Amino acid sequence: MADDRLDAVLRGEAVPWPAFGWTTTDLLDACATREISALVYQQRLRATDADDWPDDARAALARMAREAEAAELLRGREIALVLDALASAGVHAIVLKGAALAYTVYDSPGSRPRADTDLFIRSEQIETSRRVMTALGYTEPALSGGELIFCQFAVDKRDRFGVDHAFDFHWKISTQSLFAQIITFDELYAEAVPVPALGPHARAAGFPHALLLACTHPVMHHRGVERLIWIYDVHLIASRMSACDLTRFVWLALKKQVAAICAHQLARSRARLHTRVPDGVMTQLSSTRGVESTAVYLQPDRRWHHELASNVQGLPRWTDRVRLLREVIFPSARYMKQKYSLAGSGVVLLPAVYVHRCVHGAWKIVRGRK
Q1: Structural domain 67-205, CATH architecture
Q2: Scanning 58, 66, 189, 337, which has its CA 20 to 30 A from the CA of 264?
């Protein structure tokens, strides 16, 4: 019921305060959990019905929206600075996912919350990108590493205003092997669009590719979890697409064998936000259900070991399969030393912590916690 009422607000419908049956705290908590506080505030500003929402609720939402916009001013400036520095080093990165959508389909960039900024680069420019980010004061957190298990590296820093900036550099679109090549850098770059608000070197995916990514992301990385902000991403992109864009999108989804997943996500958006997608588009996308190998990711109750099994099976060579399993079970010694807070002499304890990792991980799988 809570989601139904908030969905209606995001659709721009009149939802009188008594219909919620909430306190102001309940509303604010629900919006924060779903990451839609600024969006709800914007919809209430557009509302033509008599606003009977409590003054303290409207004031709190307004404050949250202002704070988000203020932080986004700093983040947007930092993204432009990073893209400029990368371009000077010959790296022409593409802005992906939330950061790109914030500046291409959202009315206000601050209304699209996100934890980091995702950038897509060519694999041969990994080390150049690392050097640029280090020169800008960024550091890498401890990650287990591995070309097959991650296909990305992350960096972060805190600026003088206390705002955290985090960037994820990807050279494959997904860590899951079935999805890793659904869009290559060259394919995305050929149809990328400029994002003037993020500086002269900012480019993002065009609408057909952006919708393909928005539809597949929750499934290939988050086991199909239904987050309202991700559904709203799909809604906004689809709502801005022309008939030609939709035709191109359907062609891409069929060619990349993710049509069933795209149909699933668009159906969610239609049901919850009344997104206008032609029936013909849904019919074409749904025609492949049960045929595409990626459709296994739509099965309910998938857990970590299901994802690992699909990832291993999706690799064409046995050598890659063995390598992936080795990266999962035996991450780098550097990561293990940081993870377990081992000093330089702690190398003698590495065999013991590897055993602990394996046993602890296996126990979490057995208990259904992983």
Answers
A1: 2-Layer Sandwich (3.30)
A2: 189
